């Protein structure tokens, strides 16, 4: 399971204008168990590639706590600058490296917020590039809060957020001092969202990183590597939304997904997934997913249809079955083209017939059923041959991965930078 917390931020009229995304180790956790690069990576991967940002934040901007590694550029931020406000934690020492990193992020268009701000700290150096200043109101001394507000108002571009509001008195004080925005338990407690997730294989991610590190990247090799891992494919499909934010771009294949992301964004997302280091998925489940996807591809090609959209369709339909989720739920945040969406949601069109045939064949007691199917789907022997071909391909793929993992060792690879 993947979990992410979110807490609403309100304006003076009581409208929700944003959510702060928070790391949560479990569905019942009320506080973050850690605030490090791993936790930030988990939040980013979950929000953008598991849930989809639209589902988590409802179309509103999100505030994300960043640690030093992200602020200085050691770890990437693979999303559009308009999609998130970057919070500098109060525990971060703003030295020359952090100052230069935050200035660079601001120049790239990212919005900066200073968390738990107090005057006299190194965070004063960031006031020139910050848009929001968050002031902790829990157990705060009223005189100190007033002094902080007065000093912040010397910088007309700053907007103030009163956070950790837990009593009516604290809220009244914040309102009287002219804060623009408000956050705290008295207004809305953090809500934890959970979803079942397929984790990409660590080895596959490392192999993708290796393929991306060459001077002349082989797109066909990349497509093959990503296609071998159901979890990685699903995450990159959803990550396409972050790469094409504001554009009406759709995809129908893994190749489309890689092109939409671009090599730079692909490197960033795969790096972030390695840092997040989510639990490995069940190998048998991954095998079933790849068999379904490959079988759909082979059946489509046998009927003169494009194979790559069928592979994606088979993968997504298998994921829906695995998690016992309706297809429309699985497709949330996945920018598929209309033909593939129709095939998955309604079973319409030639591609829908292919997906239905393979799904029926791979289910207990299945059969293709009376539909307009490619010839191979109506010939039991031909369909069985395609299925066995898909099984052999999957077994060979997973065997190669296992052999390479044994040779390399999961803990013998380091990331530079």
TrEMBL record:
InterPro entries assigned to the protein according to its UniProt record, in alphabetical order: dGMP_Pdiesterase_EAL/HD-GYP, EAL_dom, EAL_sf, HDOD, RNase_Y/CdgJ
Pfam name, any one: EAL
Domain of life: Bacteria
The HDOD domain, residue ranges: 198-382
Identification of the protein by name: HDOD domain-containing protein
Organism per entry: Dactylosporangium aurantiacum
Domain EAL: 1-204
């Amino acid at each position: 399971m993947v979990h992410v917390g979110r807490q609403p931020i309100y304006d003076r009229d009581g409208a929700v204008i944003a959510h702060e995304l928070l790391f949560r180790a479990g569905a019942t956790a009320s506080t973050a168990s850690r605030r490090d690069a791993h936790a930030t990576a988990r939040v980013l991967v979950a929000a953008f590639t598991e849930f989809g940002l639209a589902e988590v934040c409802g179309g509103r901007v999100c505030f994300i706590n960043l640690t030093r590694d992200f602020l200085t550029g050691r770890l990437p931020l693979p999303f559009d600058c308009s999609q998130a406000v970057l919070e500098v934690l109060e525990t971060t020492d703003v030295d020359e490296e952090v100052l230069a990193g935050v200035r660079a992020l601001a120049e790239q268009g990212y919005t900066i917020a200073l968390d738990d701000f107090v005057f006299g700290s190194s965070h004063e150096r960031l006031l020139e590039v910050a848009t929001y200043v968050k002031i902790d109101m829990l157990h705060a001394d009223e005189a100190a809060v007033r002094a902080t507000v007065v000093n912040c108002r010397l910088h007309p571009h700053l907007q103030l957020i009163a956070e950790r509001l837990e009593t009516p008195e604290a809220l009244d004080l914040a309102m009287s001092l002219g804060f623009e925005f408000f956050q705290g338990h008295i207004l809305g407690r953090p809500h934890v969202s959970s979803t079942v997730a397929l984790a990409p294989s660590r080895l596959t991610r490392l192999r993708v990183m290796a393929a991306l590190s060459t001077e002349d990247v082989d797109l066909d090799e990349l497509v093959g590597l990503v296609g071998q891992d159901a979890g990685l494919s699903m995450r990159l499909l959803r990550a396409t939304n972050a790469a094409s934010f504001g554009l009406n771009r759709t995809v129908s294949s893994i190749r489309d997904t890689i092109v939409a992301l671009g090599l730079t964004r692909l490197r960033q997302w795969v790096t972030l997934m390695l840092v997040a280091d989510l639990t490995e998925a069940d190998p048998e489940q991954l095998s079933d997913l790849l068999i379904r996807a490959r079988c759909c591809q082979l059946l489509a090609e046998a009927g003169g249809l494009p194979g790559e959209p069928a592979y994606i369709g088979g993968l997504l339909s298998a994921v829906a079955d695995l998690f016992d989720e309706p297809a429309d739920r699985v497709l949330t945040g996945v920018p598929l083209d209309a033909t593939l969406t129709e095939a998955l949601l309604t079973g319409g069109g030639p591609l829908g017939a292919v997906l239905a045939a393979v799904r029926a064949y791979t289910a207990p007691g299945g059969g293709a059923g009376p539909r307009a199917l490619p010839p191979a789907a109506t010939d039991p022997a031909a369909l069985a041959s395609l299925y066995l071909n898909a099984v052999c391909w999957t077994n060979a793929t997973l065997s190669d991965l296992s052999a390479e993992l044994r040779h390399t060792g999961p803990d013998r690879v380091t990331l530079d930078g």
